[in-house]
Every structure is written in C-alpha cells, then in structure tokens.
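Page 37, continued from 36.
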C-alpha cells in the first residue's frame, strides 16, 4: 500500500455525501467488501443497505472496500475507503457477492491482503471472514473453504442475529465463535455443519428496513440518481431466474414509506431511481408515480414488464424526464417464452412498443437470452423479427428513437427449475450471436453481448461444488487461459459441470440450502417446461 492509493481513496471520499466516519476506539472494525470496482459497487443498493445496517450498531465501525482494475493489475491490496487501512487491520471482513465471475476477485483480494486464503489456515490472529449475497444464497459451495461462515438469505434478519455473537466472541477462541454461529438460522459454517438444512432468511416487512442510497457520489454508474427500493422478489416465476427463488416471497414497500424516502432523496438529487426486479408490478405504481411527479421528481425505473405497459406509468415516466425504458422479452418466439414461463405474448410486447413510442421515450433497451433449452435457429430468427418490428413501431411514431439489444447466454442457476439443464456450447452461442449481429446491426440496432466463453465459466461456478475452490485458488491470472490452466491442473470435467443434463434425482452440491420452495416444485416446473 502506497501514498498513491491512500490519496485516491481520500479524494474519492471527499466527493461523497454522508459517508459514515467513526472512531475505532472501543468498536469492532468491520470491512464491507464489494469484490469489484467502486463505480459498480456504489450503484448496488445492497452495499448501501449493509453499510447503513452495520453502522447502526454503536459498537461496530463498518468501512467499505472495493477491488479496482489497478489492484488486480499491480497486485495491490484493497484498503478501506474511510480510514485507508488494509483489510488485515480489521477484526471482520465481510464480502457481498452478487456475481459468479467476482469469485476470482474474492480470492485475489484475500491473497493481496495477506490474509490466509483458506479458513482452516486462519486463527485468532486473522480477521474473521464472512460472505453473503445472491450467489452465496443459491450455492455457497465453490467458495465455502475460504469463509469462516456464509449467510444464506437477506441481511435484515441475519445481521441482528450474528453481529452480537461476533462482537462478543471475536476476541476469544475461533472454534467457540464458529460453534455459536453454526447454531443460528441462515448461517452456514462449513467446518461445523451438522447435516441439517440451512434455511434461507428473509425480511417479512420491508417497511421496517428502508433501503435507499445512503451515500451520494458522482463517481458511480448511477451517480445522478437517488435510488429507492420499491419491492423485492418477483411473482412471475420464470424458470431460468434466480430472483424469484432467492428473494421470495415478493414483497412491496408501502407508498407512504417510498414517499418518505423520496422526500429525503430530493434534497440531494432531482432524479429518483425506483429499483426492484419487478418494480412495475407494484400494485400502487400509478398512484406512486403521480405523487412523485407532483413533488417535482424526475423519474427512472429499473425495469418494466410488457404485459402491456400502463399508459399512465409511461406518461409519468416521460413527464419525469425518463428517456430510456428497459424491457426483457427474453425470447423471440411464443414457444420459448411459454417454455421459460415468461408470461407475455408478442401482442403484449408490440402494444407496449406503441405506448413507449407515444410517450416520447427516446431509447428502448430490449434484453434477450440465447441458448435457452430446446432453442433452434428459428428462435434466433424470431428475435431478429421481433426487434425489427419494435424498431418499425418506434420509427413510425417518432424520429430519433433508438433501440439497443442486450444478449446474454442462458446459464443454469442453482435453486431454479432449470438447474438440471445444460448450457449450449460456446460454438453454438457464437454462431447464434453472429447471426443476431448480422440481422440487426445493419438496421441501426445496437447490440451488446456477454461473452459466451466467460458465460461458460459462469455456468461452471453456478453449478459448481467444493472442487472448484482449488481451481479458484490456483489461478495465476484472471483470464480465460488462466482459468483453463487451473482447470487442467485439477483435472475437472467442464463438460460435466455445464454441458450435461443432470438427473433430477441426483444429489446437488447445494442441497443443504432450504430456499423455502416446496419439495418437488422445481422438478414439476421442469417437467412442464419440457412437455
């Protein structure tokens, strides 16, 4: 750690509003680590929620740390933003993990910090290392050897249970602390697992836990927005989607609590960002947007469902300054949308396009997946046809409107009905992606696509078991070649993890996690899809 890194942290901190600075005296220092760049992490409401929740405890000082490209390139240790201390100075290091590809950063952060990578190699001299987040809730196994304990579910019910145990036991024997944590609901302690299901925890009343931007900064992806969570979860139950399982049941915040958050937010920003996996499903959304509009708020919403879109919602978004709308048809054909249980028809989508165009929205973002189960070349042609039909509607209604398409390969996710199904081979995904580019880009439609090769890696990590830990630990560099070398060293069969259909009766690596889904429901949904 050098003066350059300290100087950068201090400059970044100076541009923030409402960072929480506490004296370390008499408090347990905890590093909240987002294993990716500050630019991305500070647009993640989970980071804001955890930072606020942890610092509400007077005997805890929670500081943030991130992993920048410069850290990785120069192998520099991560330091906390607030006090510019190395992670090894903290009593507790807590990771919030949202994406499988950040697993590589988790390993490198621990290595660069001089903290023993494996939990079994750490003792009372070292920080206590924990993790949570959607990836951990779905399948903690690939990372499990690196953590003292892992939190399964949402932070709001887990933190009040584990924090007193940690603060009381952090100065004592590590084994006793681990044993005490293993007895708590939703806490998985790999070294003290007794074979009983780890039940996912969730907050019953969201109004008890306001979640909105805690720190405002221009140095982030959504820096001009004050973010407010309006709901959590999703009721539609798309068969590929982790959100509807890992964040069930769907819960809405009251209009009154959202308005209260908006009143605070408008003191800092003109624009409010309404966040949720299915934010447009809020039963009082029209009323909410009308009230926010009367407050003078400019508005943005994270996603809209084309079922079809409400004219009132679109009008209020346009009046509030929104110039972009995001919709996720996921598939181009009716057949595939039924198979994945998307619940929207082509008529819904096209009618929504008419309303988007009439509202004066300038940019429409469409999200599609390729490599879905049973997908054919005809399904790819259906994506092209649907996107061009949407463009035709926009072009007829207004000049200067644009369409951008984002393409993501299907990746089987633990805890979903499609967890047993294979991914398409990268060669197939590349061919289909090439066809989409050829069919859409000459027509003025911009395409952004995730790498099929890296999506394959994501699939391995998503369905991985404890054997993946050795691969992660032995990667010499974060690259596809580095990954392939480590996989070869450990003789892992990538085809098994990601390109084979698994028998629905076989034991799954993440079977110890009780997501709260009724027994047999996932298998039933899989059978319905493939029927």
């Amino acid at each position: 750690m050098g003066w350059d890194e300290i100087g950068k942290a201090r400059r970044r901190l100076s541009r923030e509003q409402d960072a929480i600075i506490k004296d370390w005296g008499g408090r347990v220092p905890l590093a909240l680590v987002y294993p990716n760049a500050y630019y991305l992490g500070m647009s993640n409401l989970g980071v804001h929620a955890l930072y606020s929740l942890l610092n509400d405890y007077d005997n805890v000082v929670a500081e943030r740390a991130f992993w920048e490209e410069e850290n990785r390139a120069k192998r520099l240790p991560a330091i906390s933003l607030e006090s510019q201390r190395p992670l090894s100075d903290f009593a507790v290091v807590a990771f919030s993990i949202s994406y499988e590809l950040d697993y590589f950063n988790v390993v490198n952060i621990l290595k660069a910090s001089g903290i023993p990578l494996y939990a079994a190699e750490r003792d009372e001299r070292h920080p206590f290392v924990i993790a949570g987040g959607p990836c951990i809730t779905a399948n903690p196994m690939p990372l499990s050897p690196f953590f003292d304990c892992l939190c399964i579910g949402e932070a709001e019910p887990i933190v009040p249970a584990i924090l007193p145990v940690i603060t009381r036991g952090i100065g004592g024997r590590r084994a006793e602390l681990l044993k005490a944590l293993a007895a708590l609901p939703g806490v998985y302690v790999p070294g003290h697992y007794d074979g009983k299901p780890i039940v996912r925890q969730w907050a019953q009343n969201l109004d008890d836990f306001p979640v909105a931007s805690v720190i405002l900064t221009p140095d982030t992806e959504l820096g001009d927005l004050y973010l407010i969570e309006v709901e959590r979860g999703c009721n539609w139950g798309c068969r590929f989607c982790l959100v509807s399982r890992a964040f069930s049941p769907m819960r809405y915040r009251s209009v009154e609590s959202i308005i209260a958050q908006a009143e605070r937010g408008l003191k800092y920003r003109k624009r409010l960002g309404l966040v949720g996996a299915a934010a447009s499903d809020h039963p009082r959304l029209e009323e909410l947007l009308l009230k926010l509009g009367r407050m003078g708020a400019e508005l943005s919403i994270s996603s809209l469902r084309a079922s079809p879109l409400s004219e009132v919602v679109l009008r209020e978004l346009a009046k509030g300054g929104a110039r972009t709308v995001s919709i996720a048809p996921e598939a181009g054909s009716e057949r595939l949308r039924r198979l994945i249980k998307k619940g929207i028809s082509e008529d819904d989508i096209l009618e929504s396009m008419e309303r988007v165009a009439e509202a004066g929205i300038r940019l429409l973002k469409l999200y599609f997946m390729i490599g879905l189960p049973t997908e054919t070349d005809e399904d790819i042609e259906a994506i092209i046809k649907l996107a061009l039909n949407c463009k035709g509607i926009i072009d007829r209604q207004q000049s200067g409107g644009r369409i951008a398409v984002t393409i993501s390969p299907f990746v089987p996710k633990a805890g979903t009905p499609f967890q047993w199904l294979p991914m398409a081979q990268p060669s197939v995904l590349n061919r289909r992606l090439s066809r989409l580019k050829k069919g859409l880009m000459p027509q003025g439609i911009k395409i952004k696509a995730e790498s099929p090769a890296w999506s394959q890696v994501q699939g391995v990590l998503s369905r991985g078991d404890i054997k993946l830990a050795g691969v992660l630990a032995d990667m010499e560099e974060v690259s596809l070649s580095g990954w392939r070398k480590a996989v070869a060293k450990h003789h892992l069969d990538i085809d098994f993890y990601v390109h084979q259909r698994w028998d629905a009766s076989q034991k799954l690596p993440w079977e110890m996690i009780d997501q709260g889904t009724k027994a047999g429901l996932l298998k039933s949904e899989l059978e319905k899809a493939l029927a």
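The longest strand covers residues 363-370. Flag for discussion at group meeting. The domain at 3-199 is CATH 3.40.50 (Rossmann fold).
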